[in-house]
User: Fold this.
Amino acid sequence: MKTKGMRVTIPARVKGCKSLVLDNPVIAASGTFGFGREYAEYIDLDKLGAIAVKGLTPAAREGNPTPRIVETEMGIINSIGLQNPGIEKFIAEEMPFLNQYKTKVIANISGNSVEEFVIMSKRLSTEKGVDAMEINVSCPNIHRGGEVFATNPEMVELITSAVRKATDLPIIVKLSPNVTDIGYIARRAEAGGADAVSMINTVLAMAIDIHKQKPVLKQVFGGLSGPAIKPIALRQVWQVYQSVNIPIIGMGGIMDGDDAIEFILAGATAVSVGTGNFVNPTACLDVLQGMRDYLENHQINDINQLIGRAHQ
Ligand SMILES: Cc1cc2nc3c(=O)[nH]c(=O)nc-3n(C[C@H](O)[C@H](O)[C@H](O)COP(=O)(O)O)c2cc1C
Assistant:
């Protein structure tokens, strides 16, 4: 299979702004791939469609107190709380590493206010090698901002339109599954000027230690990811595909190529692999190979022909 048959595009909606062209539709999901360093030992990072880096905030964050991760039957619940080195250290120490590769870099950002999103977007837009902004309005693990934004349609539109004015990079708005009508929230992101939406972030969840008779996570609640959430994510990608005219980056429990194809058929233009990386460090490339095999077995020469096909 030639690269051409796997190339996908998130076109710029505003004249003068940039599009995002991926050589293939597989993205390493934010927060599960660090800044790529640890995985470079296992896979050729240049073979990925893109890397969405760990969620960045204006200043460094230590994240939440432990325990902040717990394994469940079909996934994990985390309450990491956006541990990251802060935007300046990311630029100084991580971008030079990422710039050695041609793989696209998606900067995932979180803020406590509209201004913080704007400041980070402006700063990252001046950096060589940042190819798109992923606006994380949906982290379930921070008290201020986070899901408070993702569940509030006005805030989603406000943040998106403010970021739109601050950058000419493609804007991807990351949506929360923990809402009643995700199609409506996606429409507000589209109205604010988003070039794409990515979905889903983790599903709000908890676990209880029956011996201590207490919640396992120090924060009580965390976000569930992995195979357990795949049917929820697929249903929501399906709904959003019917609600907006911008591309969708689908994720939630993708472990192999067949999972990824389901998301494409539901309407995703590209897919991200998150928790799968923890189980298998070559998961992203295995997913890509599985997608290629599917296309070959079904004699389809371009992945774009499959986007949303299950709706027909
Ligand atoms: C440990 C962990 C940390 C995460 N950190 C972030 C983050 O910083 N920013 C973000 O937008 N999503 C974050 N996510 C969410 C993932 O990018 C993804 O949306 C979610 O895990 C669903 O995909 P999966 O089931 O393939 O893991 C994180 C997920 C996990 C498991």
About this structure: The pocket of flavin mononucleotide is lined by residues 29-32, 54-55, 76, 78, 80, 82, 108, 136, 139, 174, 201-202, 225-226, 229, 251-254, 273-276 (CB under 6 Å). Residues 36 and 98 are 8 Å apart (CA to CA). The chain is about 30% helix and 20% strand.
